[in-house]
């Protein structure tokens, strides 16, 4: 199975050393994370600075900091784009919501956010 994390902070908070964490989480020496580019709840690109901001970017940056490696976060086209980026090795970490069907091919961590949506109909 591939690893796609919603939150790997619990993993990062373990007693593993930074070297172990870097080797496990970022085998290329840089943590490469991906998120759904059209999902502003995960992350978005600041139009002025071109910096990726949002929970996915913050989590990826913190994991990289704890591992002592640089981080790159990029958007992917939809859920399958995120999953494919981890499967094909262009990303080490991906952000997608839990789904039982996806769990057949993805190892999920604990949730990193609880989305409470409300729909109002006239």
Question: Helices, strands, pairings?
Answer:
Layout: E1 2-3, H1 9-12, H2 18-25, E2 31-36, E3 44-45, E4 52-53, H3 55-67, E5 71-76, H4 78-87, E6 93-94, E7 106-107
Parallel strand pairs: 1-7, 2-5, 2-6
Antiparallel strand pairs: 3-4
Helix pairs in contact: 2-3
Brief write-up:
The protein is α/β, with parallel strands linked by helices and 122 residues long. It contains four helices and seven strands.
Give structural notes.
This protein is of the alpha/beta class and 122 residues long. It has one domain (2-107): Periplasmic binding protein-like II (D-Maltodextrin-Binding Protein, domain 2, 3-Layer(aba) Sandwich), CATH 3.40.190. The chain contains four helices and seven strands, in the order βααβββαβαββ. The termini are far apart.
């Amino acid at each position: 199975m591939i690893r796609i994390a919603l939150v790997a902070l619990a993993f990062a908070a373990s007693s593993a050393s930074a070297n172990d964490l870097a080797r496990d989480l970022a085998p290329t020496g840089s943590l490469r994370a991906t998120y759904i580019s059209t999902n502003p709840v995960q992350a978005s690109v600041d139009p002025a600075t071109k910096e990726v901001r949002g929970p996915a970017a913050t989590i990826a940056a913190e994991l990289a900091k704890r591992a002592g490696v640089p981080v790159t976060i990029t958007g992917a086209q939809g859920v399958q784009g995120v999953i494919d980026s981890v499967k094909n090795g262009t990303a080490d970490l991906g952000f997608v919501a839990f789904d039982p069907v996806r769990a057949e091919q993805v190892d999920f961590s604990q949730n990193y956010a609880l989305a409470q949506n409300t729909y109002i109909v006239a």
